[in-house]
Each structure stands twice: as C-alpha cells, then as structure tokens.
Amino acid sequence: VGDGIARVYGLNEIQAGEMVEFASGVKGIALNLENENVGIVVFGSDTAIKEGDLVKRTGSIVDVPAGKAMLGRVVDALGVPIDGRGALSDHERRRVEVKAPGIIERKSVHEPMQTGLKAVDSLVPIGRGQRELIIGDRQTGKTAIAIDTILNQKQMNSRATSESETLYCVYVAIGQKRSTVAQLVQILSEANALEYSILVAATASDPAPLQFLAPYSGCAMGEYFRDNGMHALIIYDDLSKQAVAYRQMSLLLRRPPGREAFPGDVFYLHSRLLERAAKRSDQTGAGSLTALPVIETQAGDVSAYIPTNVIPITDGQICSETELFYRGIRPAINVGLSVSRVGSAAQLKAMKQVCGSLKLELAQYREVAALAQFGSDLDAATQALLNRGARLTEVPKQPQYSPLPIEKQI
C-alpha cells in the first residue's frame, strides 16, 4: 500500500474495473490484473489501509446514480451528494464505462444548441450532439463561455413546450479549487439555473482516481437523458487535469510511460469519453448529448501532446487567447482559429443570413490590419475595409453572465 495504490493478493476471480471495498470502508477500483496480484487504486485516503487487511469484491463494475433526481445537486465522482442536502431520492444506477453508440444508432447533427454568446452562435455554431472543444491558456475565459451556455438554457428551457426542447446541463469540475466550485454553485443558484443542472466535482484536494473518474461519472448521468429521448449538455472543465491525474495513476501502477510521461492510452482515455456524446437516431429516441470539453494550453501552444490528441476527437474548437482578452475583446475568441465542423448544419436560417459573410469580412480585416500597421498610405477601399472590420470586431463583445436569446442576437 502506498501513494493511493494497493497491491492485493488472492482476488483471482476479479473483473477489470470492478469495485472493491477495504476493511476501513474505503472503496477502490481494480485496474491492473497481474499474474500474482491485482493493482487497485483507492478512492479516498489510503492511510486507514494496512498490510494484511481483508479486501472484499463488490461484484459490480463502478456505477453512479442517474436520473432527474440528480438535477440541482452537487455530487462527487462516485455520485455521493456533497451539497449537504441529504440523500438522493429515487434514481437508477448506470455503469460509468459503457460503449459509445454505433453508427447505425446515430443521426447527423441538425438542431441548434444556443450558447447565448454572439461570437459562438454566429461564427462557430454548435449543434445538439456535437463535441466542441474550448481551448486556451489559463485565465482567458474558457469556463465563462461554458457557464454562459448553462445560464442561457434558463430562458430556452422556460420557453420549451415539450421535453424534447429542454436541455439539461451537467458540469464536471476536475481538479479545481473548492472555492471555485462553491462560487459556481452560487452563480448558478442565483440565476435559478441549478434546477436543470447537475454538478460533479472532483476538486484539487481529491485523490487522483476520483479526478480520473469524474468525467465518466458525469457522462453516465448525461447519457440517462440522451438514451431517454431528452437532450443534455455536458461540460468537462478541464480534461488536461484529468490527463495529469491519469498519468499519476498509471505511473504509480508501473505502466510504461510514453511522450511527456503520459501512458500510451491517454488518447483512448479521451476518445472513449468524447465519443459518447452523440445525437441518437429517431428509432432510438432522438435524444442527444452535447459535449464541451475544456483544455488548458501552456503559452498558447496548441501543438502540445494533449491538445493535439483532443482536437482530432472533437468536431471543432473554440480558441480563446490571452492577447484578445487583454485587448478587451471578451469573450476572447480567436475567430480565425475557431471552427465548427458540423454546427453550420444546425444553425438557424435567420442567423445564417445575417452572418453569412461575417467570418469572411473579419478574415479580410485581419489580413489588411496586419499590413496597415506599417503605416503607409491606404486607398479608400482598404480604409473602408479597416473601418468596417473595426466595427465588426465590436459586435461579438458581451459581458459575462449575460447571454442573449437568439432573436436579440440577430
């Protein structure tokens, strides 16, 4: 026993990924099945576990509670409430690790998922069932984009006439400070946004196995809505911390390290998670799960290991930049680098008409603005382009926590 890892002898019949219980009541999960022992990661403090203790199999793969009883609650990675409001009412339990739906069970993305941010809804539209990466350095407002999206569903849901229009939200906080999570709960409850949201928190002080598990737990809760013909949005904030927690676990389990000391299956870690966000076909209930994973870059380096892993898995990315943030362009979205690969099919017709040429004009403006810095005399056409571009840059700006409904945006 040590460093949150226990090597257990004698559990010959155990399954991979099965829950075990130690004598102290702490739970663990069997990850390494070796010839003579089993490598178990401990969910909680390993100080109460001694050599020679008995370890019991639970006979079940790790599962979490799911269902509408979870809405408005804050739970940890194992689905245990941590908001001090008592136990969960009636709910079902769902496996944390399940296979993603196959190609036949899916449908292409065609309904819009409104974020309430002008910059996103016009230039990088997101559809229900899409996976859109939010990537950028720390303190560039990545979480703000995600939270505004949750807050925007308040007005969307209050107008919803049927269950098929409502969008439920799951927010997974991985490796964040407790104060940050508490602040978030306060923001959501003040906006009455908790009633359609679930918060899964694995804070920085939680053991690495819980930070590794939290995204899968949140995903299982979101899949309840997806598989029952409803719509859900899940935000993973952020997956870089999950990868770091997974690296720590893998190295302690003595799995061979690869690039940047990450294990070889760190790509699979994220791909099997994000592949579970899908738009179901009409035969399977037409539900959807939209994912907004967040990745933190170091000094804007999009070509580091984890970012290059996650960018190809997702259907596009929203890039936020420090420079734009400090220039007062907030949300600090770099329109040139941000793309949405499937979202344009889900954009509303009215929005398409209004901002069809916007992206092109902004691109032309950036090109000319770079040349205009040299200060040579500009002809009238170029000057007009610069003036228009400067005005267009002002259009997508908007303050935090004030998402706009789509008709106001247009």
Spatial strand arrangement across the major sheet: 7-11-10-12-13-9-14-15
Annotation, overall tally of beta strands? 15
The CATH topology label of the largest domain is Rossmann fold
Shape: globular
- Roughly what is the average pLDDT, rounded to an integer? 95
Between the first and last Cα atoms, what is the distance in angstroms? 60 Å
Poorly predicted runs are: none
CATH homologous superfamily of the largest domain?
P-loop containing nucleotide triphosphate hydrolases
Number of domains: 3
Order of helices and strands: EEEEEEEEHEHEHEHEHHEHEHEHHHH
Rg estimate, integer Å: 23 Å
**Quaternary state, please?**
single chain
Proper CATH architecture of the largest domain: 3-Layer(aba) Sandwich
DSSP helical segment count: 12
Class by alpha and beta content: alpha/beta
Beta content comes to: 15-25%
CATH top level class name of the largest domain: Alpha Beta
How can the largest sheet be summarized?
8 strands, mixed
Molecular structure report:
The protein has 410 residues and is of the alpha/beta class. The protein has three domains: 57 residues, Elongation Factor Tu (Ef-tu), domain 3; 290 residues, 3-Layer(aba) Sandwich (Rossmann fold); 43 residues. Strands 7-11-10-12-13-9-14-15 form an eight-stranded mixed beta sheet, with helices on both faces. Strands 1-4-3-2-5 form a five-stranded antiparallel beta sheet, covered by helices on one side. It has a two-stranded antiparallel sheet with strand order 6-8. Strand 3 and strand 4 form a beta hairpin. Helix 4 packs across helix 5, helix 6 runs parallel beside helix 7 and helix 10 crosses helix 11. The longest helix has 20 residues. The protein is globular and about 85 Å long. The mean pLDDT is 95.
